[in-house]
Each structure stands twice: as structure tokens, then as C-alpha cells.
Design goal:
Structural class: mainly alpha
Number of helices: 7
Helix content: 55-70%
Strand order of the largest sheet: 1-3-2
Order of helices and strands: HHHHHEHHEE
Strand content: 5-15%
């Protein structure tokens, strides 16, 4: 399948069994605010990545690495806050202070400025959007945007996810 110009999308028709259509509707409601097209595009992109050798397992390992990094950063913040307040948490000081970053693993870095683009988009759109809406607005792949959003949520207090009508949304506080 070749990429088409995003300014000139092409409409296609497919035939699905009712059970597959129900599953597609469930997934699009859960992850893409009911946008079936965005769900199919994300599935195609994930499949394309798996064909290029970027398997689901590699992506999951990256997510685990990112989550671990965030946990370590949280521990470091606690140590810094405690030391600034005059006390040090003995358990936190014994934990690793060498976080592993996603770039250190050589896996999918977030393009510079993407987090700022997402933040600006949220400011311009009533402070709330779905992942697929953000992907379209910043013209980036859903996996990269998802990583950037996760980093934003971990790094700043004013970005969070909320559930609205059964779909996850990214929101500014």
C-alpha cells in the first residue's frame, strides 16, 4: 500500500463480518473517540511497523522502558524535594539514580518540538482532544504522539487523560 496525499484522501469500501465490525467499533470507541477511520489508519501503521521489523514486542519493551524511566524520574524528584526540605528519604537515596532513557535504548525518539506542538494544539482546542485528533493536527504517527503524550503527562501537572463517553481524551488542567 502506498501513502496517499493527506490533503486528498481516498475513500474505500470494505466488507466485514458483523463480529469484526462490532470489534472495530469497540476499538475505535475505546482508542479513537469513535473515529473508525483513525482506528483503521492506526492499525495499518502498526502492521506496517511490524513488517519493517518493529514488532509489537519491541514497542511494548519501549513502553516498559519509558514507564520505568518515568518512575525513576519521579523517585529523583522526590529525593530532590526531600533534600530541599531538609530531609532525605533513605529508601529513595538507595534506588538507582541513573534512569534509562528511550534514546539510550536506540528506540523511537520523539521528534524535537512535538510535545510543544501537542501543548499548543490543546491550548487552541478547548483544552481537550483525542489521540487521533492530535495525530492529525501535528501530522505525526499515533505511536509517536502516544509516547509524547505519556511524557507530557509524566513531566507536567497540567496535562492528563480523562474518559469521556467511553473514550480516552487528553486534557489540559
Amino acid at each position: 500500500m502506498t501513502d496517499t496525499n493527506p490533503d486528498n484522501p481516498e475513500r474505500i469500501h470494505i466488507t466485514l463480518s458483523s463480529s469484526k465490525r462490532e470489534r472495530l467499533d469497540e476499538l475505535s470507541a475505546q482508542y479513537h473517540n469513535g473515529n473508525v477511520s483513525a482506528c483503521v489508519r492506526a492499525a495499518i501503521e502498526a502492521y506496517r511497523l511490524s513488517l519493517q521489523g518493529d514488532s509489537i514486542e519491541a514497542i511494548e519493551k519501549l513502553r516498559i522502558s519509558v514507564d520505568k524511566t518515568h518512575e525513576e524520574l519521579d523517585e529523583l524528584r522526590e529525593v530532590i524535594e526531600n533534600s530541599a526540605n531538609g530531609g532525605v528519604d533513605p529508601q529513595a537515596s538507595h534506588k538507582s539514580t541513573q534512569p534509562t532513557t528511550a534514546s539510550a535504548t536506540g528506540a523511537g525518539e520523539i521528534p524535537s518540538g512535538l510535545k510543544q506542538e501537542i501543548h499548543r494544539y490543546l491550548l487552541d482546542t478547548d483544552d481537550e482532544a483525542s489521540l487521533s485528533e492530535i495525530c492529525d493536527a501535528v501530522d505525526a504517527e499515533s505511536l509517536v504522539v502516544d509516547r509524547a503524550v505519556r511524557l507530557l503527562i509524566k513531566e507536567v501537572d497540567f496535562v492528563k487523560t480523562v474518559e469521556k463517553n467511553g473514550a480516552k481524551r487528553i486534557k489540559l488542567n
